[in-house]
Amino acid sequence: MKKISLMLTLALSLGFVSCDDYDLPNPPAQTNPQEPTFEAGSLNVSSLAGSMVIDLTTVNDANELVALAEVTAVENLPEGYELSFVGQMAANDAFSPAVEFETSMDETKVLANPDDLDAAFHEVLNTIDPSAKTVNIRYKAYAVRGTSSVRLGGADVYYCPMTASIKPFAPDFTVEEEYYIIGTCTNGSIDASKAIKMTNSGASPYDDPVFSVVVDITSDEAAGGYNWAVVPRSTLSAGKGTVLAPSDPELASDFEGYLVNRDASEGIFGVINASNKHLITVNVRPDSDDLYSYSVQLAIPNLWTPGPANGWNQGASQLLYTNDYKNYEGYVHIDGEFKFTSAPDWDHTNFGFASAGKLSTDPGAGNLKVTQNDEALGNGLYWCTADIVGLTYTATAINTIGIIGDGTPGGWDNETVMTPSADFLTWTVKTTLKEGTFKFRANNGWDINLGGSLDDLTPGADNIPVPETGEVTITLNLSSLPYTATVVK
Fold it and tell me: Whole-model pTM?
């Protein structure tokens, strides 16, 4: 069994004395006696969590502490010293990163305050969702005398690695999983068969409370005023109850403002007086005044990408496309920096730099820059994504593009690399194809790939049937939408 040195000799005690003004009856002898050892197995700590859910609210309301672990064996602890533990919590069993929390001892049990566990839980998981989640916990052990302590086993020794299911304190508001639009689309009633479902990023609505939906408003609907309000799933299921409607009916047609909780029977709605597709966005987490912010904007079919690569000319830039008018993606030729714009000019919404990975619509926001490991990247092709509701973006450098598939020389195991043009928007390769299928993929991986048909290539789409066998020249065009390719024999 591994021996772990425990510095509890008189020499160590002398170190305690010099720090804490303890009186020794006699000075230690000037010798080098055999240092006492503490076997790792001599301190046994077992989890008390089991498979139960630790409900912090229940424990706190009972004015109790959480019993996390129990010391089942301890030997060779010198007289006058007591055991003490510091807990570490993490989202993974590698404990990277870890958050520490205080513990106390009640005879053999290791206890923690619900407040300390709640704080660690939220920091580790970066969530305010009140549902129970599993975390990893372990302990650093100390021998303590007065205000002095020595860690048992050294810096790399931890005890009782365990998992625990913890239900944190709930916030002082409730957010439901699903929200819907009612109004004109439901003939003014709460009709579950006609209500239009809103969506968020897919994360917990406590952590991402921004829900959005695109409504396609006809000319007749716009002439009469397109009515809308937001209902949670509970109201939709009951056919009555609370809706989120404009806080001031006089401002119901404003493109942005606030909603409040109202009874559906009041019949108050937001109003859109223009036809075409509109994006309705609502933050379903109330602010300090119990208001819910919203915005209504004309749905943007594309984002433009002006920058030095195209002379800051939207008309010469590549477009990002969208399937939901919230998330956009596409290939972009970038030379150092760029911006996203909602129109082929500077007179509409422009998206600039807020912070790393974050967009800003402020007029004075700086240019977006492509970086890797905090170093600026230069001229090249990038796969860009943008979330104009969550105001986030990514720009992934495209180092290679190749063809791969059972119709190519390398099969599905080895891709055939293509050659880019000077502006990185056209990629070609001369190769030999046989009967089968193939796809285009970037960076020798599957995260970014194109499939479907040669005249309408789509990310992640099906394999492309080989149109010509034998020696061919394949040309991939990424300069405009839709992306296309040719295979010439």
Answer: 0.76
